[in-house]
Known about the structure:
Elements: H1 3-13, H2 19-38, E1 43-45, E2 49-56, E3 59-62, E4 69-72, E5 75-82, H3 84-90
Antiparallel strand pairs: 1-2, 2-5, 3-4
Amino acid sequence: MLKNDLVEKISEDLPEFLKKDIREAVDIVLDTVAEALKEGRRVEIRGFGSFSVRSRKARVTKNPKTGKTMNIPSRRTVHFTMSKSLKDPLAGKG
Length: 94
């Protein structure tokens, strides 16, 4: 699903709002989540899941195509953990 698809779905459910207002609200939510993650904070959306920032160590690996050794620097990545109410239906438990 793309952001435009999300805006379309919300506008179908809430026809009294203009699409441009819904798009702006979605942008605000996504920007707020991104800003919190940049600051290293955890974001939890009850019934959906939580986003957190994790640090990955620097490592040495080989390029599978050339076999050449490569150094990969340490970096921060976003980790998503599903809530139980999302995980169970996906696993066929509910």
